[in-house]
Model the fold of this input.
Amino acid sequence: MTDVPATAVDHAVATFCLSTELAKATAPENIQLGRSWLRSQEQVMAEVFLEEGRDQLPVDGDYTVWRQAQQRRLGEARERWLRELAHAGWSGVDKGGRSLAYVRPDLLDEYDSSHPENPTDLPLTASVTDPQSVWWRCLRDESHQWRTSFNNRHVAGTGCPRCGKKGVSRREQEIFTALREHLPALASPGSVPRCEPPQAGRRLRSWRVDMLLPGAPPVAVEYDGAYWHKDRIGKDQEKAADLTASGHIVIRIREQPLPNITPHDIVCTPDQPADAIAELVYRKIVEVRPELVPASSDDPEPAEGTQLPDDTPALETAEKDDTPALETAEKDVRCQAQRIALNALIMEALLQIHTVSVNFDMTLGEHLMCGRPAYDVETELRQDMGGLLAVSRAARRTLGPIPPDTSAAQTGTPG
Done:
């Protein structure tokens, strides 16, 4: 079988040789030759991804999103390989080659297989252009769920409506993400029934708000970009007034040169950092919801009656404290060594997870296109998972029991 090409010239030669071999082969041989070629391509791609993992693994970043970009490249490569095989005269292309799992492995983790309306095996059996609407869950924020078809995800290129793409600016999403660090209950988007009574017997649609914080009182946060809201002041005022009438605190982030329309408005510039805007919004929110301010972490004042007696010499007290201080220092050294070992094991675990993910994509592709039995895929996955178990055992052996934090005990009040 022709080797995997390393250059454009080698690729052209390899494709010509493949076409010649397929043309001379019998029908069964034709299918096997094409499958063998696909395996070789998958293997080279897997080696590239594993090497990237060793060099570029985002230990301090979002591995899931980084890995999804690799899987998108794999899907694009698979479509290219199938086109080349079809052009060369391969007769082994079947419905597995058009499935979501094969063509768009980057979308597999977003397919909400736990949703009761989603068939579990649909990504393996349905075409990537299937028009049936199914449920998806965002990788960046699991609270983002939406419904659309395989065809819309693959052909139209739609993504999470909150992170993505239409109707929500990247800037608004960044502000929401920064605010969620302070306010985990914040939702985006939110839905609020209208306070205004129905008109002519018709029930009015609920307001869609950019961000909604439940509680008493609830807080609605809107982001108004200058370009999109320059001619909407009347509608923005109507919406703010209705939300206020229903008991909501309305905070509108108004991009210059938009004018303020509510007492709680925040004015920002187009280039102001999202985290700085989020901090201003957070301060506005805690003005009306002071219970959201985290409790102070300062050490508590000693209770009455816990001070040393007046006749206790300070020197004697210091001598008594020497031994506990040395013991604490030794424990701190041991804890630091354990943390270093733990960081190394975390890196090893992440590399193992990456290996499992890359190998799974390759073996699942062989199942879909090359007839590899499903139990082979499961067996290989179990073997790879054994590597993670080995890392876990190494962690227990290396770390041992981690001493508890004694700082709280030292600052607390004696019984």
